[in-house]
Design brief:
alpha/beta, hydrolase, AB_hydrolase_fold, Alpha/beta fold hydrolase, Rossmann fold, 11 helices, hydrolase activity
Length: 262
């Protein structure tokens, strides 16, 4: 069975460098709205929805999902769009996908940007429990605890529209789509593979993030550099996991600089 085509939102000039953005577990491409506005017409922007998230269909249900399924779906989607060369960036699960694409050395990949994600979401034992919870109680049962990890205390006041949109996307996420991405997370550990990344890499690390805090970003940068790839690290103070939502202008500028340089 061929890989599914992911739903996408495409904006920007056709002749500009292509930047592909991937979102976190439970949200959708809507999380990039403010970043997209700050990027303007400086890139050809492709925002995709993960399987079972936003407008994308589920992966096949006859087996557990794995990272190669996500990469195949993304590759198939970009082929359908006629994209031959692109820069891949993502936050949280989207960042893990960018790392995996770099490790797999996908054709046409020019650079990666990894935000709020290391090579493994440990402990891997947490994911079967989360799958059971979402199948029993639905995604809405997870949203409050998730938002506490994702956003600073100031975020509801400073970015109310963005948080409302992401909350709606989270609650609308298909339970099985959430479960499938959890299956991928529970089976993915790239710790021993990141040295195979050969494309320029940007790591964006939030000070109070559990996924890629500043010290872990330095460790990941060293591991990637050991394989010979150039790595830059951008540190954002005072924010948690969803740094791109709370600091869209800074993230957009960093993305443009990275894409333009490579």
């Amino acid at each position: 069975m061929s890989a599914p085509t992911l739903a996408t939102t495409v904006t920007g000039p056709e002749d500009a460098p292509v930047l592909v953005l991937g979102h976190s577990l439970g949200s959708s491409s809507v999380m990039w709205e403010d970043v997209a506005q700050d990027l303007g017409d400086r890139v050809r922007l492709i925002r995709y929805d993960l399987p079972g998230h936003g407008r994308s269909p589920l992966l096949p249900l006859d087996r557990e999902a794995r990272m190669p399924d996500i990469l195949d779906a993304l590759r198939h989607t970009l082929e359908e769009l006629g994209v031959r060369e692109y820069h891949l960036a993502g936050l949280s699960f989207g960042g893990l996908t960018a790392l995996a694409a770099g490790c797999a050395q996908l054709p046409g990949l020019r650079s990666i940007t990894v935000m709020s994600s290391g090579p493994v979401n440990a402990p891997l034992s947490q994911w079967p429990e989360k799958i059971a919870t979402v199948r029993e109680k639905g995604t809405e049962s997870l949203v409050d605890d998730t938002f506490e990890r994702w956003f600073s205390e100031a975020a509801p006041a400073t970015h109310p529209e963005a948080l409302d949109a992401i909350r709606r996307a989270f609650c609308a996420c298909e339970d099985e789509g959430y479960a499938q991405v959890c299956q991928v997370l529970g089976a993915t550990d790239l710790s021993g593979e990141v040295g195979s990344i050969s494309v320029p890499t940007l790591l964006i690390s939030a000070e109070h993030d559990g996924g890629l805090p500043w010290d872990k970003a330095d460790e990941l940068a060293e591991a990637i550099r050991a394989g010979g790839a150039p790595v830059e690290v951008l540190r954002l103070a005072g924010v948690k996991h969803m740094s791109a939502v709370e600091r869209p202008a800074e993230v957009a500028e960093a993305l443009v600089r990275h894409v333009s340089a490579h």
